[in-house]
Design brief:
The protein is mainly alpha-helical. It has a single domain, classed as Glutathione S-transferase Yfyf (Class Pi), Chain A, domain 2, CATH 1.20.1050. The chain has seven helices and no strands. The chain is elongated.
């Protein structure tokens, strides 16, 4: 009974959502094939900032082509769009800014531990 109910709830609520999300990656952008939409802009940190933060933090990349191929392809298309390129900060400037934040936070942590 519980198993049957859980299966029914899963099928009714989550399968349509996962199918809708999967179909969203078939388009060039979340806003459609040719237009960037609000979801693209909201997710832009994945496309541009995340890689810089991973590099500054010295962590293993969270998004890889092997694990998230559709999301990685979207991120490349988004960051490669000419209009988007004009709006995003340069990667080296982001790296310098996040490196400065890292040093500041490390200094704060060190001073609190003394």
């Amino acid at each position: 009974m519980v198993s049957s109910l859980a299966e029914t709830l899963w099928s009714a609520n989550f399968v349509p959502v996962s199918e809708e999300l999967a179909s969203a990656f078939l388009k060039r952008f979340f806003g459609g094939d040719d237009s960037i939409g609000l979801v693209d802009i909201a997710a832009s940190n994945v496309a541009h900032w995340l890689g810089v933060m991973e590099e500054v933090g010295g962590v293993t990349p969270l998004l890889t082509d092997e694990e998230y191929p559709a999301l990685c392809q979207w991120a490349k298309r988004y960051a490669g769009d000419e209009t988007v390129k004009q709006c995003l900060p340069k990667r080296d400037e982001l790296f310098a800014m996040y490196s400065g934040f890292k040093e500041m936070f490390q200094a704060m942590a060190t001073s609190q531990n003394q």
